[in-house]
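Hey all, quick one. A colleague (J.T.) asked me to put the pyridoxal-5'-phosphate job into the tracker so the inputs and the structure tokens live in one place instead of scattered across chat threads. No bug as far as I know, just bookkeeping. Sequence used:
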Amino acid sequence: MPRVRFYQHHLGARELEALREVLGSVFLTAGPRTAEFEQRFAETIGIPHVVGLSSCTSALFLVLKALGVGPGDEVITTPMTFIATANAVLHTGARPVFVDVESDTGNLDVSLLEQARSERTRAVLPTHLYGLMVDMKGLRAFSESHGLLVVEDAAHALESRRNGERPGSLSDAACFSFYATKNLSSGEGGAVATRDAGLAAKLHNLRSHGMNKEAYGRHADRYRHWDMTALGYKANMNDLQAAMLLAQIPGIEERHARREALCRFYDEAFSEMGGVEVPRVSRGAVSGRHLYTIWVDAERRDSVLARLQAAGIGVAVNYRAIHLLTYYRETFGYRRGDFPNAEGIGDRTISLPLYPGLPQESARYVVDTVRKILASGD
Ligand SMILES: *Cc1c(COP(=O)(O)O)cnc(C)c1O
């Protein structure tokens, strides 16, 4: 067993009690807890409409479908993200068009949007990498001047803000993940947040086969007929997930504060260490602090990864650039050199342990071990 796990979830007695309550009720699928979560989450993030879904992947896909993105369309996105972002575009039949990222943050470089735009461009799909929001004001000015849709991958950005904006406040929709390692988690789960009531209604319909009533509407008191009004999918959140998420909402700020404190500790230690850089957090921004990554020399990265693991420290790589993964290379002919900043980050990055329950002495052990490995020079 590792001395310091890469990730350890924070779920416990409250979530267990919430699950027990649902198991004692009638609805295990999308029922009253799911509706309650949608309302509470909307209040929490300050966006009026939320739709609970089975994952962020299905959220990204369903939003693009509901907004009419499909074959023949192009969606501008980032190669420095989890594959789900670009894959969701492919599943609609549209084509993801990558632009390079900022070398100091890893976020989509808004100044490159114009050269990626074509007559087929329908939407821009940024990811708020590690929790730092993309320059949404700049992105919004661009999308408005060209009549483009904007969908945010906010999987890392639960607590994020930038210049008074939050995910969902300057876009058509923002997609959240409640996957096992995310800051709010039900093992699997996702949600869309939008200011557009019509889009939310469409997503409620599409998440359950295009039925005009979900189980709760069909059976809450007595049976009612339902109709199918669109060709939908099966991607709803269920009440077990919703109950676990509801139990975590009151602790969001406290857990975020602990992540922030750990990140500051890491930042301070790495700022005076040779051979390591960390991504910049822009002024005027509160990062969701989902992941903490360091950047080391590309030639040493894999050996540093191995040595950290040999020292009992859990690590990950978020992310190797998407366009260099086999499927994307073979399908679209991408090559090394196409997006140099994303490639540079992908070659140099190491994610370190970061979670609210990470003990201070473990964080110190991580820092000391990185220092020793880097000083050893091999
Ligand atoms: C986790 C993650 C996703 C996918 O979330 P799921 O809920 O597992 O589908 C998408 N984008 C990013 C950036 C992620 O980190």
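Adding what we noticed when we looked at it: The first strand starts at residue 49 and ends at 53. Residues 55-57, 81-82, 84-85, 127, 153, 155-156, 177, 179, 190 surround pyridoxal-5'-phosphate (CB under 6 Å).
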